[in-house]
Structures are given as structure tokens and as C-alpha cells.
Design brief:
The complex is a heterodimer of chains A (271) and B (156). Chain A has helices at residues 19-51, 54-62, 76-87, 123-128, 132-148, 150-169, 173-210, 218-227, 233-238, 244-258, and strands spanning 100-104, 111-114, 118-122. Chain A is mainly alpha-helical and 271 residues long. Chain A has one domain (21-53, 71-258). In chain A, a hairpin with a 3-residue loop joins β2 (111-114) and β3. Chain A is elongated, with a radius of gyration of 25 Å. Classes of the chains: A mainly alpha (271), B alpha+beta (156). Chain A binds chain B through residues 1-3, 5-7, 11, 13-15, 17, 19-20, 22-23, 26-27, 29-30, 168-169, 171-175, 177-178, 180-181, 238, and chain B through 1, 3-4, 7, 10-11, 15, 33-34, 37-38, 40, 42, 48-49, 71-72, 74-75, 77-79, 81-82, 85, 87-88, 90-91, 93-94, 113, 129, 131.
Chain lengths: 271, 156
């Protein structure tokens, strides 16, 4: 037995397929699979929300005391005023349960529908609108979310997303991020359609209350003048709310279709 | 969004630098293998062929620890979901095995033959939370030195 010094001509122990190609094939498969799962589970969330009665919702969330940490609630007078404005919609909007308004001191121009019948209004909103009509449209928009039960739908989807990401990847942060970003796009699309629907509900409620829809687009126009100079085209794609101009146009078109007119607005009394 | 950008940057960095390191390592492995191909390293238990008397034998070993890049780690993670051959790790193990044998040979350049060559692999941080995909490959064997015709010893 003699030793023949030689090296193999080919390395048969490594594959020569390009790794980038493999990466794209695999990631596409994973994303397609997860999106399908998310879509299907989102569908079930919608069905489940239909079965969850308002009483059950109130009972479910009365015990859950979420610390929202929005700062101090220290404007009782304004808060009472908001509460009375919300109550004024009672004949116009059939709401499943009474809504409690919390006014929170914050510069954010926003309001939120929280499960359990709690509406959070940030004081920045009061500074951004100049008329009662404009403010009441925003309140009606949030009431529209309660009426359409969007807060439950979105929360249900959030829970589904967290569970999916956890099941699929555990602690693998990188892949979870890709997944979360992809699904955020879908959630954003879904949420944009819910926002439009809440806008429509709000417009009808505003017309019912005032007899006209003046001031409905007031907040959006104020926000639009603020965001001038920025390129929001790309950001809009990731955003949970429709583009401002789109919302204004939609509202005007809907008002026209329903034959709603816009008259003068009442100035908001500020302290 | 921020974490996604960081992730993609890490992925790209891992791919580029991993690729560079790998091709540099392969070039070095090929050059050294050609240089050392005349030193037989076999898994036989007895010396091959001739009955030249053996002056002495010693245990020699070479080992190496190599890590995969981030890109390959993610690729292997994706492959874990579907199953199949993890091609991303093939070059890692191939490089580690050949490097370990080369280091073993380089540790005894004047030996005449290496017998009973064994190669063992172990993963570093196995089951660890941080999941560093690195392997250690250890090659060990018996280097034998033939008796020289002259009085001069092969090793000083």
C-alpha cells in the first residue's frame, strides 16, 4: 500500500447553490404563510367580535386596569364638557354602552377608543380645533369606532400577531421584525378602511345633531397645514390612518351624495 | 421600522464580510493543502507499506473555532422552519475540518506520517440564549517519525 499524494478536484462537501437565492425563496415562503394565517385569524377575530356582546365586553375590561400613563387627568371642567358633548350624540348614534370620556393633558392631537367604553381625548386636540362642530366630529369619529367595535377588532389582531410571531420565531428578533413590518402594512391597510368607516359614521352623526356638516373636515385641514413641507407620501403607506387629503375628499364626496350641506360653525369656547 | 433597518444592515454586513472571510480562508486552505499534501494523514492504525523502523511517535492535534456570519445564521434559522439540508452551514464545517487538519499537520512538519487521524466537532454555546453559530473542530492523531539512516535526528 503506497501513499499517493493528491487533492480532490471538486469539493463535494459544500453545495454551490447561491445562498441569496435560497434566502429569498425561504423568506417569501414564510411571509406568504404567515400572512395567510394572519388573514384567516383576522377573519375569525371579526366573527368573534360579532359574538362578544357589549355587556361581556364591559365585564371583560372592567377588571383590566391598564395603566395608560398619559399623564395627569387634571382638567375636570373641560372633561365634563366633553362628556356632555358625547352625551349629546345619544339620539343620533345607537351606542352599545355608555362612554366615559377622559381628558388627558398632552400635546398630542389625538383621541382614542379604548375597550370597555372609555374614550381618551388628548388636550392637544382642543387647541387644534376652533369650533364645537369640528370637535364634535372628532368625538363622533371615536364613537363610530365604538359603534363599529373597531377597538376590539384591532386589539384582537394585535394579539393574533404577537402570538404568531412568538410561535413561529421565539426569540429570533430579526425575523420577527420582518414579519412585524410586513403585517404592519396589512394592519395599516385594514385600519385605514376602519378609519374611513368611522369617518362616515361620524359625518352622519354630525348631520343628525346639527342639521348640517359644517366643520367636519376642520381638524384634518388644520393638521394638513401643519404637515406641509414634509414628504408624507411614503409614510402614508405605513400609516394606520388614511391620508388627510383623502379623508377630506371622501367626507366631501359623502356629504354630497347624502345631500348634506355645510353651514357656519359654532366657535369653541376655550378657557 | 428602525429595528427592521438595523436588521437589514446587519444582514448585508454579515453577507459581505462573511463572503470575504470565507473566500480568503478557502484561498489559504487550498495553498496550504498543496504544500502539506506530501505528509500522509490517514485513519489507519499501522504505518502504511514499508517497514522502516520508527524512532518515536507523538500525539499531535490541531483545532479551530469558526463562527458563521449573521446572514448565514438567519438563513439557517429560516431553513429550520422548513427542514432540509442546511447548506448555509456546509462551508463552515468544511472550512473548520480542513483548517483543523492543516493545523495538525503544521504542528509536526517533520513527521513522516500521521496515523489514526480522528476529527471531532462540538458546537460552542450549544443551547445558549444568544445563539452564536460557531463550531469547534478538533483533529488529533499519532505522528510517527522514521529512524534516519544518518545519526542526525529529524527533530531538534
Amino acid at each position: 500500500m503506497n501513499y499517493q499524494p493528491s487533492l480532490p478536484e471538486h469539493n463535494d462537501n459544500v453545495s454551490h447553490q447561491h445562498p441569496v437565492r435560497e434566502f429569498f425563496v425561504l423568506i417569501t415562503g414564510v411571509l406568504a404563510f404567515v400572512l395567510m394565517g394572519y388573514w384567516a385569524l383576522g377573519f375569525f377575530v371579526d366573527i368573534a367580535v360579532g359574538y362578544l356582546s357589549p355587556e361581556q365586553e364591559a365585564q371583560l375590561f372592567s377588571k383590566v386596569n391598564i395603566d395608560w400613563d398619559f399623564g395627569e387627568e387634571s382638567m375636570p371642567e373641560e372633561q365634563a364638557k366633553l362628556q356632555s358633548l358625547v352625551a349629546a350624540f345619544k339620539p343620533c348614534l345607537s351606542l352599545p354602552y355608555p362612554i366615559t370620556v377622559s381628558l388627558v393633558k398632552s400635546e398630542a392631537v389625538n383621541a382614542m377608543a379604548v375597550p370597555g367604553g372609555k374614550m381618551v381625548v388628548f388636550s392637544g386636540l382642543l387647541d387644534a380645533v376652533s369650533s364645537t362642530n369640528g370637535l364634535m366630529f372628532v368625538l363622533a369619529h371615536e364613537l363610530g369606532h365604538f359603534k363599529n367595535r373597531d377597538h376590539l377588532r384591532l386589539m384582537g389582531r394585535g394579539i393574533v400577531l404577537s402570538i404568531l410571531a412568538m410561535l413561529a420565531f421565539g426569540g429570533d428578533a430579526g425575523i420577527s421584525d420582518i414579519l412585524a413590518s410586513t403585517i404592519n402594512l396589512r394592519t395599516a391597510k385594514y385600519s385605514q378602511s376602519r378609519e374611513s368607516q368611522a369617518d362616515h359614521t361620524a359625518l352622519q352623526a354630525l348631520h343628525c345633531h346639527f342639521g348640517h356638516v359644517g366643520g367636519a373636515t376642520e381638524l384634518f385641514e388644520a393638521l394638513k397645514s401643519q404637515e406641509k413641507g414634509f414628504d408624507f407620501e411614503m409614510l402614508h403607506y405605513f400609516s394606520s390612518h388614511p391620508e388627510l387629503q383623502q379623508r377630506i375628499d371622501d367626507l366631501r364626496q359623502l356629504a354630497q351624495e347624502l345631500g348634506y350641506s355645510a353651514k357656519g360653525t359654532k366657535k369653541l369656547m376655550k378657557q | 421600522m428602525d429595528s427592521l433597518i438595523i436588521f437589514l444592515v446587519l444582514l448585508a454586513l454579515g453577507f459581505v464580510f462573511g463572503k470575504l472571510a470565507e473566500s480568503r480562508h478557502y484561498r489559504s486552505i487550498q495553498a496550504r493543502e498543496e504544500m502539506l499534501v506530501r505528509l500522509p494523514a490517514t485513519s489507519c492504525k499501522k504505518p502504511m507499506g514499508n517497514s522502516t523502523p520508527i524512532s518515536h511517535a507523538e500525539l499531535v492535534h490541531g483545532h479551530v473555532v469558526i463562527s458563521v456570519d449573521y446572514f448565514k445564521q438567519i438563513l439557517a434559522g429560516l431553513r429550520n422552519l422548513f427542514g432540509g439540508t442546511i447548506q448555509a452551514y456546509e462551508t463552515l464545517l468544511d472550512r473548520a475540518r480542513r483548517e483543523a487538519v492543516l493545523r495538525l499537520k503544521e504542528s509536526c512538519p517533520t513527521a513522516n506520517e500521521i496515523l489514526n487521524l480522528r476529527i471531532e466537532t462540538s458546537s460552542i454555546s450549544k443551547g445558549g440564549g444568544d445563539r452564536i453559530g460557531s463550531v469547534e473542530v478538533l483533529a488529533y492523531g499519532t505522528a510517527i517519525y522514521y529512524q534516519q539512516a544518518s545519526s542526525q535526528h529529524s527533530r531538534s
